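fwd from M.: "can u put these together and see what the complex looks like"

so here's what she sent:
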Amino acid sequence: MVQPTIEETRLSTEQAIQTYRTGARITDVDALVVDGFSVYYETDSGTVKACDDVTFTLKQGERFALVGESGSGKTTLAMGLMRLTRPPGHIASGSAILNGRDLTTLSDEEMRKTRLSELALVPQGAMNSLNPVMRIGRQIIDGILDHVDEDDKSPTKDELDETVRDLLTRVGLRPGVARLFPHELSGGMKQRVAMAIGISLRPRLIVADEPTSALDVVVQRQIMQTLGRLQEGLDASIMLVGHDMGLVAQFADTIGVMYAGKLVEIGPVEEVFSDPKHPYTKLLIRSLPSLQEKREFLGIPGLPPQLIDLPVGCAFADRCPSVFAKCREVTPQTQDLGGRRETACHLYDEEAKS
Amino acid sequence: MTEQTQAVENSSTSTGTQIIRIISGVLGHFVVKRFLFFLFVVWLASTVIFIIPRLSGQDPVKEKLLLEAQRGGAMQTGLDAMAKSYQKRFGLDQPMWTQYLNFLKDLVKLDLGVSIAFFPRTVNDIVFESLMWTLGLMGTVTILAFILGTLAGAILGWPRKPGWLQYIFMPLLTLSAIPQYLLAMILIFVIAFQLEWLPLFGGYAPATVPTLTFEFAVDVIRHAILPAFAIIFSAIGFWAIGMRGMMINTQGEDYMIQADAKGLKGSRIFMRYAVRNALLPQVTGLALVLGTIVTGQVLVERVFSYPGIGDILFQAIRLSDFFVIRGIVIIIILGIAGATFLLDVLYPLLDPRIKVRKS
């Protein structure tokens, strides 16, 4: 079985990749340290562990992509980090330290002020994420106004207008867009507006939750280029949530693969693509179409398990081609394989020890 | 042809086309279109009103005369002759189409005819007098109930409300399940009859003559309190339940999640994002209800003997005063069609997604 290399999974040209990867963004400063982070939903039929014991570290300037199929918990994790989980969901355990402050212990008011100013969300499907009865300019201004400290004087109307003009220009929109309503914009334009809102207070971390879903590939590329450029301008980190492996491969530095609420593999994107460790990651990458080789379209047989009352052992055991006895008895822990690579799989128990 | 005449001709044709362009522009304008539609609806409904009583086969004049004769105990001889002369007086002896044309002509002049029961008072006179009472009471009460009910519903549908609110609003809303007239009678019995805090019935004290004095105004307000309460209580529940549902719907919208993700203050999200969007269907409801307030609240007005249009309608039906009934129904039609027209014109301002398309 020939594994497709990262070159094959790239959708666009070398030039585009160059724009994305100007390199040397990543510093050695920890921007976000997530440790044992769990989000559970309490339902009548039991506890749904939508996001369970997730641990990873995001460096300042790093682009971290979280991939996995629908229901794997990637959006739950992103929303949990922003403390936007709605009841019956709640953060069950763990910590998330952003620039030295633990987000899970902040008061509601502190968390509100942290959102947008330090931690901004570029939402999934910008189609409906804008208030339909409010002009674009107003929606950008709202976020700025609610983050003015009590002691500071409010910015004047002219200053705000200037800020809106500047933000819209930076995401590649005409300043006139400020006067329009959301329904007067195309999907790509709305996504750009969402990005303009996201960067309006120069956050340290941008959480982009499938920012290109429901857009065509040409617009997808433009949006990702813009996002990358904005990130470099702000010297921020990005946590990209998505299921489009091609897009992730082009954009991210580091990739985290989620399965059934758990982070099963983390590593530098090129290495994970060229040499995946976890059997799920292997199958996921093998399922990508390849340009060089014409073969049957492969999926991963079976379905992900119910997240209520997960059995002991590995959640992927039932679908795993390399399953063995231990997989059904002991839940695998994340193991450090060296070279910033980690995986939660019993196949590497020996390797990790040595 | 000299240059001058040519120039004159040119300018005249251009002004001619300009006028045509302006006229077609005006006709194409949606406000004008809506207004023409409004007139069409009024005409259609009026025609139906004209036809239906004539299909019933009843003779209003004869009914009235029979009633009077029975009351007076007089002989019924000569009644037919009397009826004939009255029919001539009301124009009921004319052929149908003449009657119809006369009816339309009077309608355009907003002349609703003469009352049979309260002859020789005109229907206009009767209707407009009672309309003032009804509009004063019902207009205020409807808008008050809308504001209070919508606010209550908005708060009830807000997940971050203080928990104890539930225990105050919910019992209040169950009050709205009590029929208005029953509530009215309870209010009369307890507050007006037993406690004697407020007057029992009427729009003003029986011995007084309506004047523009402070005392009279106070008297009118004292008389309006109980009917107002009876109506408000039931209407608040109606508005609150609708608004609560809409508020809960908006909670699931992406823009609400994004509003939170923007770190907006709770008060701003509540007013500008949740309420602003949840309000749209409420406004539609308000416009339609405002259109019907001219009908008055027959039962409530009856219970309080309030001199509103509902009370008049009740009396007119009892005395089969066709002209007054017709007049009131026409007022209702004008009210509903007018409210719908206003809603059509104003709604694009409330919801920018509703585009006024040029034909």
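replying to her w this: The interface with chain A takes residues 253-255, 257-265, 268, 272-273, 276-277, 280, 350-353 of chain B (CB under 8 Å).
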